[in-house]
Amino acid sequence: MILWWIGDLILLAVVLPVVVYLLRGVLDAATSIVPSVQEIAKAAAAGSKDLDAAALLLTTQDQVTKTVAGVANYGGSLDVILDDAR
Amino acid sequence: MAPVLAFAAAGAVTILAVGLIVVALVYYLVSVIAQLRKIITGLDETIASVGEIVQKSAPVNDVVTTINQQLDAGVDLLEGLLVKKAGMRDAVGLVDGMYAGAAAAGLRNFPESATIKAPRIGEVYTRGTLTLARLGREAPIAAGNPAGPALRDVERGSLAARELYPEIRQTRPKSLARSPVIGTDAPVQYEQREDIGAPRKRLPGRAMIDQG
Asked: At what angle do helices A16-50 and B2-57 cross, to 10 degrees?
């Protein structure tokens, strides 16, 4: 009979606080993750939006190719016009 | 009767304790589940955005590589042309004149250019002046009809420009007319006046006295 009461006392004084403490720690950890995940989602969405201009790289590539071709033609003309260094 | 009540009381306390533990478990576990659901929602949004990032950035590598190759070819071309036309020393000087300190790094395709002491071209000539000077000296801009044939001789550009001027040296004559000899001992005196060297007929002072 005394052991039962001791068991009840341990249950109320030790087990219940420990369970509450541990569960509260898990809940706090889970709660703290939520804002971080939301910030990551916002950052990923912003990064995805920023990359909308990546398609313009194809235009840049085309422009660079044309520019370098023009420079090559101009350089070829200069090569003809100007004498080489002595 | 008393032991029965004692057992009942102990049992009730046990049930109460277990019930409290169960309530705590339910409360906190449900709360954790709710937070985990929020996390799942956020991760879903993140995964969707990351997927878009991966999709949009997929061609970037190839495009940038191509752009870099094109720009490398342009740099190779311009460096080679500059060194070919201006010479290594002047090329380094021109680069350093436009971008102070750039000569220390040298030209990319000419590692030996890093060891050349750059002449101080930029202090004497402004940007492009050397090129314009070369064009003006060797390329007869607007000297002929732009629609006509090229005035330049590809092999001997300076000779083609020289032919635009009166015939003196471009046909390489054996001898040119000698320069005239001038001075008191010259065989031909250009000012052959009789009064030169003769005594003056009237002194300038006499004229002033007569006027006075």
From this structure: 10
What are the boundaries of each domain within chain B? 15-58
Which of the four pLDDT bands, split at 50, 70 and 90, describes residue B198?
A: confident
Per domain, the residue ranges of chain A are 2-81
Q: What is the predicted ipTM?
A: 0.77
A24, containing H or E segment = helix A16-50
For the whole prediction, is pTM greater than 0.80?
A: no
Partnered with residue B107 across adjacent β-strands are B110
What distance in Å separates the CA atoms of residue B71 and residue B32, rounded to the nearest whole number?
56
What is d(CA B198, CA B192) in angstroms, rounded to the nearest whole number?
A: 12
Of all residues in chain A, the one with the smallest CA distance to B134 is A82
Distance CA B63, CA A63 (A): 12
Chain A residues in contact with B157 by the CB 8 A cut-off are 80-83
Chain A residue with CA closest to B75: the answer is: A68
Closest CB from A8, A41, A54 relative to B14: A8
